Amino acid sequence: MANKVKAVLIGGTGYGGSEILRRLLFHPHVEVVRITSVDNVGKKVGDVHFNLAGLTELTFQEMPAAQAVAGADVAFLAMPHKTTAKVVLDIINSGVRIVDLSGDFRLRDAAAYAKYYGVEHPAPQMLSDGAFTYGMPELNREAIRKARYIASPGCFATTIALGLMPLARAGLLSGPIHTVAATGSSGSGANPQITTHHPLRASNLRTYKPLEHQHIPEILQSLRIAGAHPETSLEFVPVSAPLPRGIFATSFAEVPASTTQEQLTAAWKSAYGSEPFIRVISGGRQPEVIGVSGSNYVEVGFTLGPVTGATRRVVCFSALDNLVKGGAGQSIQSFNIMMGFDERLTLAEPGLWP
Amino acid sequence: MANKVKAVLIGGTGYGGSEILRRLLFHPHVEVVRITSVDNVGKKVGDVHFNLAGLTELTFQEMPAAQAVAGADVAFLAMPHKTTAKVVLDIINSGVRIVDLSGDFRLRDAAAYAKYYGVEHPAPQMLSDGAFTYGMPELNREAIRKARYIASPGCFATTIALGLMPLARAGLLSGPIHTVAATGSSGSGANPQITTHHPLRASNLRTYKPLEHQHIPEILQSLRIAGAHPETSLEFVPVSAPLPRGIFATSFAEVPASTTQEQLTAAWKSAYGSEPFIRVISGGRQPEVIGVSGSNYVEVGFTLGPVTGATRRVVCFSALDNLVKGGAGQSIQSFNIMMGFDERLTLAEPGLWP
Amino acid sequence: MANKVKAVLIGGTGYGGSEILRRLLFHPHVEVVRITSVDNVGKKVGDVHFNLAGLTELTFQEMPAAQAVAGADVAFLAMPHKTTAKVVLDIINSGVRIVDLSGDFRLRDAAAYAKYYGVEHPAPQMLSDGAFTYGMPELNREAIRKARYIASPGCFATTIALGLMPLARAGLLSGPIHTVAATGSSGSGANPQITTHHPLRASNLRTYKPLEHQHIPEILQSLRIAGAHPETSLEFVPVSAPLPRGIFATSFAEVPASTTQEQLTAAWKSAYGSEPFIRVISGGRQPEVIGVSGSNYVEVGFTLGPVTGATRRVVCFSALDNLVKGGAGQSIQSFNIMMGFDERLTLAEPGLWP
Amino acid sequence: MANKVKAVLIGGTGYGGSEILRRLLFHPHVEVVRITSVDNVGKKVGDVHFNLAGLTELTFQEMPAAQAVAGADVAFLAMPHKTTAKVVLDIINSGVRIVDLSGDFRLRDAAAYAKYYGVEHPAPQMLSDGAFTYGMPELNREAIRKARYIASPGCFATTIALGLMPLARAGLLSGPIHTVAATGSSGSGANPQITTHHPLRASNLRTYKPLEHQHIPEILQSLRIAGAHPETSLEFVPVSAPLPRGIFATSFAEVPASTTQEQLTAAWKSAYGSEPFIRVISGGRQPEVIGVSGSNYVEVGFTLGPVTGATRRVVCFSALDNLVKGGAGQSIQSFNIMMGFDERLTLAEPGLWP
Questions:
Q1: pLDDT tens figures, D249-307
Q2: Interchain CB contact of A201 with C (< 8 Å)
Q3: Other chains touching A, judged by 3 or more CB pairs under 8 Å
Q4: Which of C186, C196, C244 sits opposite A192 (nearest CB)?
Q5: Cα distance from N-terminal residue to C-terminal residue, chain A
């Protein structure tokens, strides 16, 4: 095992941590040396995540993060926000690389963090300084290559930003965006709640946090970096849907009235032509979850709508797996890039059909 | 059984027909005298719709519509569009009252029919003359009371129009509306298709007919009658979701920038305060399918969004059961009104929980 | 409202309580005067069970049971076992009739109670004395007619006993029975648990308490009363299935080798020919959940298997809704009988299709 | 690509063919050179199986099998029974190795084939001669190593046989076995049918072919080879459950009355201690689908039941993914063994969680 990257996973009992392990345990250049958690301490990984039974002898250990990262090359953080920020402050000077799946270091704007996460950030300077690099390869692959600290994007944020990014890249995006995105229940995490109670979830559709979801500033930040007009705004309605995995987003966007189908086709091709995980859907079909569920792939597409005055509507669709490209998979993609590996390592396999 | 209304059901093997029977067989003032179909001819109703086993001795009969309605007071039509228009022409002069669940007589504008249904209407004059009364009690109860021919609204059309109607009634609705509505699989009917194949449907989310769904002109027609500005437009994206029953709609609408929460609360109360099947949801919760599934009830609600220039956004939510209030249930509600019965007959019972 | 039966519901926030209310609120001879609970105290019923919004102004009240039943004619108890037994002791001398949905007063054998429920019964004499009448109309309708205290059967117990009862009634049942019954998630109650967490439940099948489920003695008690040989035994494996409502049971039973198809057809007809809620399925189809879900109806059927020595196998199938005929619905059926009402009151309507 | 095994897939549009491709396209020693089908001819693989979009340029071709296998080293056959037998006769002398997923060459007894498949086998001599080797590595790995023609086991057959095999291997299995196994909807194939129509499947449980399923003789054949008493019999009830993937089997078996827990623990360990894909579950948990869904792994376990006369009951549980270990995955496992590769190639990865 010499020369392998030594990885530690902080917070291993959630679905994000589980998905990271599902990949890292089979990564040719990685050795997972330690997994910490506050739940299930002492249990074998396979006794909590049944799919991993027999694939590792590691157990969940409870220990301070600073101790956990000793000797490790990289720490994957799979914890809730707020908790994560404190842990990062404990290990930021230890020399370990960090790949963080929480929302704590994604934003550059501490005021937006305070507004949408409901607490003041404990280290706002780290946000404005960009201490962490936003881990969306399609947005900033080169920055990731040079990074030591990665803030891996949120699930809705990835779906919606990737759906609209070609418009931003082409300089066509401005004005208000209206988005509805429906998500599977695994996005709510591994702890049972009334909103994931099977009898109520299995035949239900409902919204939560409409116009208030914490991914709103994250999406706008990405789109502006990609080229959206600074005054682009986003009204986002999340919907809880009765499936375990997957997000499907519909975004109504405004482009100049003169925009043509050809122009948009070129914009999507230009944005994603060489991206290994983005599938631009055309030819009558539109993106759907079933084609990407369980995998790191994303389906994106659009429909050109009517002209209203000086603007024309484009409806952008995008679909991905919230735990893979919307979470653990993307974090490993960025990790691969940061380490100089082929970014597809452990991620190239397709999802299930059906 | 003297004095009971004699009802015939034309097209009884689909889910609409089944739901009509589930109600009419228990209606205190109705006797179902005949059920026709082209499938399952000769079978007992309970051998096709298992839930009705033992509750009626009727069988499916194949016969011309003109013959089927002989001696009947009312014909419920539960057939596909195009087929229905032909049947109506065969029975329109027979004196029988008609309650039609298809889309063939809902629109007043024959050009819109041709555009969205893909065929010329065989009797366009009947559309422009308003031969059929649009059977949405919340929109035009008095007209229904005087009607003999009812065109019962579509499932998406009911959900979306009821979600937005308070804004229209209050004179606040204009400009483009952006709607995403997710629907259960029963909306696709009783015939197996690839889009309702369980392995692909159970864990999927996808769109179909985005911006092209045939309910678009129906919704606009209703909203304009209710008071929406004539130039109000609608961009609608339907989404297929993995549940059997229910529709959840999210509509982004524009109102004047000065509009307040109090004004909207009053608008919803004014529109629906005395409606027996509309539940205005407030107090932190938003509409969801689970509360209305299996019943004729509708949940509606809204969230007030940001001001952009001269306009302010309101996001309207609505949820109902596509086969009941979005189909058969509403058709019976209108039938009850037309016949002078209590409109809640057979419809007052709540849905299941959970 | 004079002359109506005054009913109080003790424990109204669970799914059993909710289903009782769904029926009793529409019962022509009942007035629900009070609902108690320990959760959601002070909330309106419709703010907890969304389907009941607007249908009652009652709120959940916390008060001692003895106080709650004051002035009431009947108390429906919808609480967990153990808790229930204590409440019953508090109200048993108050004169109020009791319909109990828990397992605390179903068994006659206190030792079996202690073994399967894991605690000594606080009033074992009440069990052996038969203070409560077992509320399964198909088994003992006449006893229910004379009862004042009803112990309503369990969901698995109802499904399995009704599936096998024709064999017992015909004197054909003896030897070991092997049963697998799969249940929907609502059977686990309204409180979120890991076994009802949507991401894990939605695509899973698993067993729990195999050979140890507390309904085993209840089923044997019923079958022996119906005529099964005293040494009949039952090995029962419950399975958790990914649907909200319904139980489907498969029971392998032994009958004499000489038993014929005609004999069995006659046995099922004899047992259930006049039962209002039992549908004997034949003609190539077998029972399934979809035909009875949401209703008080039961589908039963059988397949005759091979001869092995002196015995022949019969495989019995049965399907019902765990919350209706397997719970609240059956409790109201027994209540109707006890009060001298038509036993079908509020229960005659079919379930949904689909 | 020199030195790679050239594989052709005959019948590539079903779920079995899709799952084979999902693996073979990433197999380090295999090149898929051709895919035939009768549906979707000319389409790209990724336009039918959306998960494979972009991963291969192959299209579905229609051509005679004899032509399709020209130049290939191995043909994977993923077609219905009956059709398959004819194709095999066309290519059996071509020199190509065959891995067949159908039921046409699994049985040694042509009479059993005729009885359970409803047709005479076109080449009964091939059955009795054992022209094909039954591809269940846990049963006959050494025979597979020497084979050129593999008949890959059925999904129910694999689940049930693997659940009971330790008893057979230990010489403990005799008498009648009673099995109920619930399956996901993908087992019914890619063509929409009424039994996989989402509205009816999503909330249903039902049986089909009770006591008559064609996997019965296949299971008995395996168990007898493993050491079951020749008079062991099987009564099997399949159940359709509302999930896309997975089978959960419960088998009631008889062992000598003296059998102990320790003896059985040893039997399971002895049977499966070195098997790469079998997980023996103990310690209070029992097998469940969620731990193996999407993977080639199997969970097996048991509960010791009561003594009845000279026998004692053991209830055996087993769970797997019907399309992977119950289908395509197992066929590749056998292929790997036959070719002298590590049998885990492309199969070692765990399934999803959740």
A1: 999 999 999 999 999 999 999 999 999 999 999 989 999 999 999 999 999 999 999 99
A2: yes
A3: B, C, D
A4: C196
A5: 37
Structure tokens at B105: 């007589």
Query: Is C28 an 8 Å CB contact of chain B?
Result: no
- Chain D contact present for C187, CB below 8 A: no
Best residue of D159, D179, D203, D302 to probe chain C, by most C CBs closer than 10 Å: D203
Subunits that touch chain D (at least 3 Cβ pairs < 8 angstroms)? A, B, C
Asked if the C-beta of C193 comes within 8 angstroms of chain A's C-beta atoms, the answer is yes
Residues A204 and A101 reside in one and the same domain: no
pLDDT digits (tens, 9 = 90+) for C116-153: 999 999 999 999 999 999 999 999 999 999 999 999 99
The answer to whether residue C197 is domain-embedded is: yes
Is D250 in Cβ contact with C205 (below 8 Å)? Answer: no
Q: Does B252 touch chain A (CB under 8 A)?
A: yes
Contacts with D350 from chain A: Cβ below 8 Å:
22, 51-52, 55
SS3 content of chain D, % helix, strand, coil (to 5): 35, 25, 40
Range of the domain at B107: 5-153+326-339
Mean pLDDT of A88-103: 98
What CA–CA distances, in Å, run from D251 to D246, D297, D314, D322?
16, 19, 8, 17
Domain of residue B128, CATH code: 3.40.50.720
- Which residue in D has a C-alpha nearest to residue A187's C-alpha? D354
Is position D316 annotated as part of the catalytic site? no
Q: What is the CATH number of the domain that holds A310?
A: 3.30.360.10
Strand ranges inside B13-142, DSSP E:
30-36, 60-61, 74-77, 97-100, 133-134
Shortest CA gap A6–chain B (Å): 36
- pLDDT digits over B109-164, tens only? 999 999 999 999 999 999 999 999 999 999 999 999 999 999 999 999 999 999 99
3-state secondary structure of D149: strand
| A206, A208, A214, A219: CA torsion to nearest 10 | 30
Q: Are D167 and D288 in a shared domain?
A: yes
Residues A22 and A81 occupy one common structural domain: yes
CB contact at 8 A, D253 and D316: yes
Query: Is residue D192 located within the same domain as residue D282?
Result: yes
Residue C252 lies in a domain: yes
Sheet with A278-280, strands from edge to edge, namely: A206-207, A233-240, A174-183, A247-256, A311-320, A298-308, A278-280
β-pairing, D298-308 with D311-320? antiparallel
Q: What chain C residue is nearest to A48 in terms of C-alpha separation?
A: C194
Other beta carbons within 10 angstroms of residue C310's beta carbon come to 9
Residues C206 and C139 placed together within one structural domain of the fold: no
Q: Looking at the structure, tell me whether residues D17 and D48 fall in a common domain.
A: yes
Q: Are residues B196 and B312 in the same domain?
A: yes
Question: If DSSP codes are grouped into helix, strand and coil, which group holds residue C326?
Answer: helix
Asked if residue A167 belongs to a domain, the reply is yes
Per-residue model confidence as pLDDT tens digits over D119-154: 999 999 999 999 999 999 999 999 999 999 999 999
Cα nearest neighbour of A49 on chain D: D353
Same-domain pairing of B314 and B179: yes
Nearest C-alpha in A relative to B244: A203
- Please give the single-letter amino acid code of residue C109: D
End-to-end CA distance of chain C: 37
Q: How far is it, in rounded angstroms, from Cα D298 to Cα D315?
A: 17
Q: How many CB atoms lie within 10 A of CB C194?
A: 10
Choose among D195, D207, D204: nearest CA to D237.
Answer: D207
**Domains of chain C: total:** 2
Report the distance separating Cα B343 and Cα B137, nearest Å: 9
Residue D353 within any structural domain of the chain: no
CB of A305 within 8 Å of a chain C CB? The answer is no
